[in-house]
Amino acid sequence: ELQLVESGGGLVQPGGSLRLSCAASGFTFSSYWMSWVRQAPGKGLEWVAKLKQDGSEKYYVDSVKGRFTISRDNAKNSLYLQMNSLRAEDTAVYYCARDTYSYGYQWFDPWGQGTLVTVSS
Amino acid sequence: DIQMTQSPSSLFASVGDRVTITCRASQSISDYLNWYQQKPGKAPKLLIYAASSFQSGVPSRFSGSRSGTDFTLTISSLQPEDFATYYCQQSYSTSVWTFGQGTKVEIK
After folding, report:
1. Contact between chains at B44 and A114 (C-beta distance less than 8 A)
2. In angstroms, rounded to a whole number, what is the distance separating the alpha carbons of residues B84 and B37?
3. How many contacts (CB atoms, under 8 Å) link A and B?
4. How many angstroms separate the CA atoms of A9 and B44, rounded?
5. How many CA atoms lie within 13 Å of B105's alpha carbon, on the beta-carbon side?
6. Residues linked to residue A39 through DSSP beta bridges, in sequence order
7. Nearest Cβ partner of B99 from A45, A50, A103?
8. Is the CB of residue B102 less than 8 Å from the CB of residue B9?
């Protein structure tokens, strides 16, 4: 069974840091791009970052550039998101998702269950 | 960046109704468009990819189509389990993925 399990969320003060983890199972993790997608309370989905299979290419949404870093450890089948200089507007459920590609098309499947990050004093 | 505009933002419908949700791209994205369903407290679930291809296990009452930069998700006969929020997502850009703002389908 394909599975993604996030962890590491919690309450952090503005300006603080947090590291999210995503453990993958049921597929060959090292063969896929991976992404983080977030959802602020009561709001829509926002793609945050993505990372190539070997870690050589990374892309971010403008609002997190210079503050967030996506990384992976293929030996541990794990994806990470290091979040620094956190702001109140970063408060959201953060989902880990597999970038699935076929014939040049991309989509997100599967998704993890999400981990909540709350930035507040 | 490519902007995706969904309409309506919410709608009220009854079981058995035909429901149509539209997503418009700010530029041509060919058919690089996906649809997801999200229920409260749950992760999104892929319904349709490449504008009109069904994800395995998705009921046949869901369908997707494209006309230029306008994309449509249609539910032919709304079922109780279909009350949820639906999102479109473009996968044309090679660097940045973007979602529509979502359409909430509620019970009339």
Report:
1. no
2. 7
3. 56
4. 19
5. 27
6. A45, A93
7. A45
8. yes
